[in-house]
Structures are given as C-alpha cells and as structure tokens.
Specification:
Helices cover 23% and strands 21% of the residues. The chain is built from 5 helices and 8 strands. A 6-stranded parallel β-sheet has the order 5-2-1-6-7-8. The radius of gyration is 16 Å and the shape is globular.
C-alpha cells in the first residue's frame, strides 16, 4: 500500500523503558517493533514521539515520599497516575528500541519534558489545554488522516487518538501494532472512549491488503 500524501503514520513512544526489561515495561511491548517497521515501509510520511522526562518529574512516584508506583495523586491539572522513573532524558531507557527504524521519519516530537506536568498525548499535555505543537505541524503539512501505533494503547496511544480527533483529523489505531498496560480495565475503557468519538480500529494486515 502506497499511502496518500494526506495520510501520516504516527508512531508513539516505542522506547526501551516501555519494552521488556524497561522501567515501565508494557507486556510484549517489543513485539510491535517489526509490525511498526513494516507499516513504516507503506507510509510516505512518518512521525515519531518520544517520552522525554527530566529527573524528578512530578509523575514519578519517587517524587512523592511514601507513595508507590501505580497509585494516583492529585496534581494542579487533575488526577495523575504515579509511575516508576522512566524515559529520563539522556538515559538508555529513553532511547528508541534499537530495532525500530527511525530513518525516513520527518519529525521526532518529544513530550513530557516539563517537570510539573505529564504528557500522555502527542497533541496536548495532561492539562488538556497546553498544545505540543503537533496538531499545527500536521495541519500545516496538509495531513488529514492519521494512523497511530506504538505504546501503550490505553495511555499514550489512546490519549493521542482522542486529541487527534478533537483537533479535526480522521484517526485510525492499528490495533496489532500496539500493546497495552491494561490497569483495572483501562484497555477496554480506552477503546470504548476512542470508538465513541469515531476512532477506527484497523489491523496492519488489512492495511497491507488495501
């Protein structure tokens, strides 16, 4: 499939810390790499996102004495899951998976680099109002339809898909090119919310046949 010029593949956070052995490993997260690479061959335009936290980020449980990873706390912008320290700027954990094909991508967008606020979405920080600039970039380039893949379905992929729809893009999530954390039913909840706003659920095989 040769993609149209109005389509872009958005590859979300395929980084070492989200793969097996990483600080916040998504189950089977490394299994998306080959699928994502094959998808990349079929799209003329590709954008990568990269979690890029400073040490001591407020989303880290270690920044809240007495709190443990996967607990929640309230920050000025709302409820925040507390995570293990992960994707710290300049560390191996923040690097893309070594087998991920990054050459040919047109943009690497780093997010979550402000200490005081987390950024699941590639489009907005977790206050839901501070833009990353990605939406404006994609509109300026003339993209109308986005295909999302990467890690994790129920957090950064899902939030990005919702915000992409809010920004006016047609959106499809390539289900088999994603993996989920799935905390307390978060995967099913994410899909319900995405489908309620018109996010399509597709497979890499279906795209290959198109």
């Amino acid at each position: 499939m040769a993609s149209h010029t109005s389509e872009c593949l958005l590859i979300i956070d395929v980084q070492n810390d989200f793969c097996p052995g990483g600080a916040l490993a998504v189950p089977d997260g490394d299994q998306v790499v080959g699928i994502v690479n094959r998808l990349g061959e079929r799209f003329a335009h590709r954008v990568l996102t990269q979690d890029w936290h400073p040490a001591g980020h407020l989303s880290f449980a270690s920044s809240h004495p007495g709190r443990a990873p996967m607990e929640t706390t309230t920050l000025p912008y709302g409820e925040q899951v507390l995570w293990p320290d992960h994707c710290v700027q300049g560390t191996r954990g923040a690097e893309f998976h070594s087998e991920l094909e990054v050459n040919g991508s047109e943009l690497i967008l780093r997010k979550g680099f402000r200490r005081e606020i987390d950024s699941y979405s590639a489009f907005f920080e977790n206050d839901r109002s501070t833009p990353t600039g990605l939406g404006a970039y994609l509109r300026e380039r003339g993209f109308e339809r986005l295909y999302l893949c990467g890690l994790a379905t129920d957090f950064c992929v899902g939030y990005s898909a919702l915000d992409a729809r809010r920004a006016g893009f047609a959106v499809a999530v390539v289900d088999d090119a994603c993996r989920a954390i799935d905390v307390n039913g978060s995967l099913a909840a994410a899909w319900r919310e995405m489908e309620s706003v018109g996010v399509e659920r597709v497979t890499s095989e279906a795209l290959a046949r198109a």
